[in-house]
Structure formats: C-alpha cells, structure tokens
Amino acid sequence: MEFKMTNQRAFVSLNGWLAMPLALGALFLSQGCSPTSSNNASSTATSSSDSTNVVVEFPDGDPSIPAELGGPRFVGEGWETASPGAIGDPSARKGGVISSSIPNWPDNLRRFGTGSNTWLNYLIRDLCYESLCGVHPMTLETIPGLASHWQVSDDNMTFRFRIDPRAHWSDGKPVVADDWIATYRLINDDTLIDPMMKQVICNVMEEPKALSKYMIEVKCKEKNWRNFLAIAGLTPLPAHEIQGMTGGDFLEKYNFAFTATTGPYEVLPEDIRKNESLTITRRKNYWAKDDESNQGLYNFDKIRMVVVRDRRLQFEKACKGEVDFHPVFTAKWWVEDVEPLDAYKNGQLIRTEIFTRFPKGFQGLAFNMRQAPLDDHRVRKAIAHLYDRKTLLTKFAYDQYDALKSYYPGSDAQNPNNKMIEYNPTKAVELLTDAGWVERDSDGILKKDNQRLTITIMYRSEGFEKYLTSLQESCRKVGVEINLNRVTPETHWKNMMERSFQAAGMAWGASLYPNPISNWSSQMADQDGSNNITGFKDPQADEIIAKYDAEFEMAERTKMLRELDGIIYAQVPYALEWYNPCERILYWNKFGMPSYGLPRYGEYESAFAFWWYDPEKVAALKESQKSRTAMGPIPELQIRPWEDENVIDQAAN
User: Fold this and answer.
1) 74 located within any domain
2) Which region holds residue 108: left if phi is over 0, alpha if psi is between -120 and 50, else beta?
3) Are 2 and 117 in contact (CB under 8 A)?
4) 536 and 589 fall within a common domain
5) Cα dihedral sign for 106, 492, 531, 568?
6) How many CB atoms within 10 Å of residue 312?
7) Where does residue 608 fall: left (phi above 0), alpha (psi -120 to 50 degrees), or beta otherwise?
8) Which uninterrupted H or E stretch holds 265?
C-alpha cells in the first residue's frame, strides 16, 4: 500500500481551540435554543483526582517499543508532521481566574451520547481532551495533537497515526492505540444513543487497528474527504476506564463524571456544583505544556462558568463585575446600556467588537415540516413574508445585524441567487390562497377542512417576545393565528430533540467545513436527537450531500454547497432572521490579549485559550475603583485585524 504526504489544508480536528467541531450545536445566540438542558438525574460528580502529583512511568515514552513501531527513537521518515511554532502570544502569563456565565445547569457533562451536543460540553472537550491532529487557527494547516505524525494512502482510504509517546492521561497512564479502539466500540454501541457520532465515525470507517502501542491504522468503508477529519479529530477516552463498557453503562456512569483527560485542563469533582457553577482547572502536569506550539495558550489557572438563568441578569452581572467576561447578543443592551456606566467611562469595563474570518451560523424560526400545516412550503413561505425583519432590526436591534438569505451566510458557500424574502403581506395572502386557506371563521382566522390555521411558536427568551409579538400581529391581519409559548431553556432543548413543537426559535453555529448531513439529510430527519429538527427531506439535496462527501477538491465542494443552499432556501424550513457579523464581548479590564484579539478562525470562546490574567491591570483596576478615577483612555470599539493580509501573515508566522 502506497502512502502519500497529504500537504492539504482541508483537514480539521473535531476539537480544540486550534480546531473547530465537525458539527456544532446551537450556541448562545439571541433567541435560539441553548443546547444545554435540564438536569433530570442526579448530578453526583466524580472525575480523576487532582493530577498534580501523578507519577508518569515513561515521560518520554516506553523505551521497549522499537523506533519503527513509533517508539521514542522514531524519526518519521515517510510520514507527515508540522512544526507550527508559537500559536498564542509569547508574552502571555500563566495564572488567575476568568469567569463567565451559562443560562442553565446542563442535563449532562458527557463527551458522547444522547443530549451531549451542548455548548458547555464542547467547551470542556476543547479544553480537557485532545485529538490526533488539530488545525492551525491562523492558517488552517494540519498540526500535531496526540499524534506527532500521520500518513494518508494514495487512494485516501487508509490512514495511519503515530501517537506521541510523551502523551499521557491525567491519571499518569500512557495514551495508547487501544484508547481509539475502545472509543470506537463505545460510539458504535446503539445503547449510547448518539446517531450523529456513529454516522460520522463508525458508519464510514472500520474499527481502528493497533499496529503497536503507539501506532494505529484506520481503513475507510467508503471514500469521503471527511474521513481523515473525523478520525484525526476524534477525542478518545481512556481504554483503561471504558474498555468493555456498553453505551448504556457509559450514560449512567459518566453523566456527571469525567474520565481521565489528556488536555491542558480538567474538571475536579469538587468544582461541579449543581445548579451553581462549574470550574475548569489548568493541569500543571499537562504532557505538552512546554511545547513551542502551546506557548501563550491555556493561560488561566481556572475558568469558571456560573449559572445565571435570566439573560438580562447575565448581562447585569457582567456590568457589575460579578462575572468577568460576557458575549452580548442583545443589540439594545450593547448600544444603550453600557456607555452610561461609570465603569465603562473610567475604562474599567470594556466593550469590543472583534471581526474574525470564522463562518457565521444562522438563526430563525424552525418549522416542523412533519406536521400540517407546516408540511406545505407555501404556508412556511407565507409566514416568512409576514416577518418584517427590516423594520424590527431598525426598531429593536439598532441595525446591528444583517438579514439572512442563506444557511451559509457570509461564506463562499452562500448561493448568490437566493432572493431576500421581504416583508410582503400581499404575497403571503397569495401563497396561503394557493395552499387552500381561503375561508375564515367567525374570529377572522383562516380555515381549511374545518381546521383553523393556527401555529404555536416555542421560544425561551423574554427579550425575543417583542419580535414574535410583531410577527403575531402581522399574521393575525391576514388570518393566521400565532400562539406564543415561552418555555425554559431545558424544555426548549428537550422538545427540539424529541420533535415536540410546531415552530421554534433556533440558532446554529457554523463550521469551517460544513457538514450538511447532520442538518439536511433525509436519514437524519426522523432520528430524534439529530440536528435535522425540521424534518427536511429532499432527494436532490441527498444526492448532493452524497457527492459532497466523496469530493476531495474544496472548490468543487463549495459549488455543491451553493447548490444545496439554494435548494434548502427554496423550501423554507426556517423563517430566517439575522446574524451578527462580529464577536461582541463585554469584559473587565484585567486581561491581556493578542493584538488581534481572537485568532483569525476563532470565535468568542477562543478567548479562554488566548487571553490571560494581567496582574498589573488587576492592580490598576482596583486602584481606579478605589479612587473613582479613570484607568486610561477607552480602547477602540472594533478590532479588525484580518482585513490586512500583512497582519495575517505576521500572525501566522
């Protein structure tokens, strides 16, 4: 079998601040579903103990493993690797705490399994676990992770990885090939109830084979450009903990517990406080802490997430300094409520808008297309025409957002032929008439076959009611009855996953490498727990998705995504809303950051890895608060480093 040097920029890990997830769940956007859910089970917390004093038997690898099998004397001839240099800011300091907030206590803290596709679980994964390879956040080049070297066969059907012999778990055990085998078997167990991960990993590749303690080989069942991405990005769990465990056993044992970790952070049992907070602690014996690529990264000693169930209260606590760091998604608060504060005027509280090149997600009202009347695209499009987005964005959002006309906004995958669905009640009436909704009852509501045209919209944010009330009024004028049902974030997410809704506010994040199968393939439409919440099915879309996964040329894949975007957009599975083109962050002036704020392909969460606690700023902040004097001039509102290619080159090098 011939192996080649890949030298490609299209591979991206599933995890890590140096990589992006293959499929993101909903992020904490303005009205959409928070992908964390209620805690219905006991949350007794366990994990590996503090790893500071753990003894590692072979810090540089097992000397009994020969070089040709990946042992410590391995030279890597015929293999690919990379030396990315320092990725963070070398002037960053270690130490200190940064705090932020989450809107509810999660249903679980698991790496895999039903309901694990949450923002908080992604955060923990990115900080506490590692994958074989990552992607450089400035250049998108493949870089080492748990694997120091890799190979790809000429036919793109077989991959080999050499595990870095220095890598070890937080309990001191070495990272070995068996860890991937055990993790594969766990994901392949149907009792884990994780159809998306099974589809991405097990349905497309055979079980990994251990060539040695430090070498694994994976053969694909079908040719797919995502296969390398999937296996290189899979974050393993330790075989010495999960070997032989069924999916059901894993769900029970690790719902609020952690295995040993390999990454720079860990979650200690005492730091999981049900309904209150979760703290992530930096490991002092992280195996790769001295690597050049990690210099300037993973700087905070602790990252604390505090549960604050009301979004306005989250913002207010940030303004008062009760939490340090807060992404702001409500335009009114951002524009009107920060500048009058003395803390802002004195330079203690900072607003910043950071523009990155990371693709933006989409949000809107998700229609459950499995049920009448929303199984008719004419009804769906009529509702979209009754959504006066332009007026609402000016009135309530201070024109801080751009209206959506694509499911891949602002990227090369956006279909340029998609026409904006403008506010047009006349067009809405025409569509409803064409769909057979002509007669009205005594209340003025349209009816057909003795059924009223009534739609219930589920939502979770009080701040979004004014938008929905406006839509409700517009719909009422043409004979459509809209009922508004506000639920808790926990119930919202549960109903999404169980398809127990008619229409619902929903927001999705984005990936550098879109995975349309999770949101748009027919095979996911009827699987509870998948991201295809609308039940979207289309044979032409399925055909494109199948071809997309087998196409290794990025330019061709982009063309396919444009075509797919047009097909999806025409069927109106969502009444699309708007998106924010930048990362809006409110933070207290006690942190250092790189000159570019966030990495080129980063999002606001990247700050937890790239920023640092600055003792001098902390002292200046305390003195400013004590003396009620200004810390200094207020920084520029916007950071736009990636518009200058010279800056990009400088940061990448």
Assistant:
1) yes
2) beta
3) no
4) no
5) negative
6) 14
7) alpha
8) strand 265-266
**Please, which residues have CB within 8 angstroms of residue 433's CB and are 6 or more apart in sequence?**
none
In this structure, what is the dihedral angle of CA atoms 419, 423, 426, 430, given to the nearest 10 degrees? 50
The structure tokens 């601040």 sit at 17
| Strands of the 325-327 sheet, one edge to the other | 325-327, 583-588, 349-354, 638-639
User: In sequence order, what are the residues at sequence separation of 6 or more whose Cβ sits closer than 8 angstroms to the Cβ of residue 512?
Assistant: 12, 20, 135, 140, 358, 359, 601
Q: Rounded CA gap, 649 and 348, in Å?
A: 32
**Terminal C-alpha separation, the chain:** 35
Residue 587 inside a domain? The answer is yes
Its domain, for residue 602, covers 327-357+581-652
C-alpha to C-alpha distances, 268 to 46, 149, 545, nearest whole angstrom? 7, 32, 41
Q: What is the CATH number of the domain that holds 495?
A: 3.10.105.10
Helix (H) or strand (E) run with residue 509 in it: none
d(CA 514, CA 536): 17
What pLDDT, in 10s, does the model give residues 17-68?
333 332 222 222 222 233 333 333 333 344 444 566 788 999 999 999 999 9
- Write down the pTM of the prediction: 0.76
Please name the residue ranges forming H helices in 75-218. Answer: 119-128, 178-188, 195-197
Report the C-alpha gap between 48 and 154 in whole angstroms.
41
Distance CA 65, CA 211 (A): 11
In the numeric block, which tokens belong to residue 68? 């040709």
Task: Report whether pLDDT(372) > 80.
Answer: yes
Alpha-carbon gap, residue 211 to 208, rounded angstroms = 9
Give tens-digit pLDDT for 279-311: 999 999 999 999 999 999 999 999 999 999 999
Antiparallel, parallel or unpaired: β 503-508 and 454-459: parallel
637 and 569 co-located in one domain: no
Asked if 251 and 190 count as a contact pair (C-beta separation under 8 A), the reply is: no
Question: Would you say residue 384 has pLDDT above 80?
Answer: yes
| Burial class of residue 403, CB neighbours in 10 A (0-12, 13-18, 19+) | middle
Coil, helix or strand for 220?
A: strand
Dihedral pair phi/psi, residue 406, rounded to 5°: -160, 155
Q: Which two tokens stand for residue 494?
A: 């549960």
Q: How far is CA 231 from CA 32, 172, 197, 206, 361, in A?
A: 30, 24, 11, 11, 24
pLDDT higher than 80, residue 206? yes
The reply to whether 188 and 203 lie within a common domain is: yes
Neighbours of 155 (CB within 10 A): 11
- DSSP code, position 464: G
Looking at 532, 556, 579, the residue that finishes a domain is 579
514 and 588 co-located in one domain: no
Length of the chain: 653
Residue carrying structure tokens 């942190």? 591
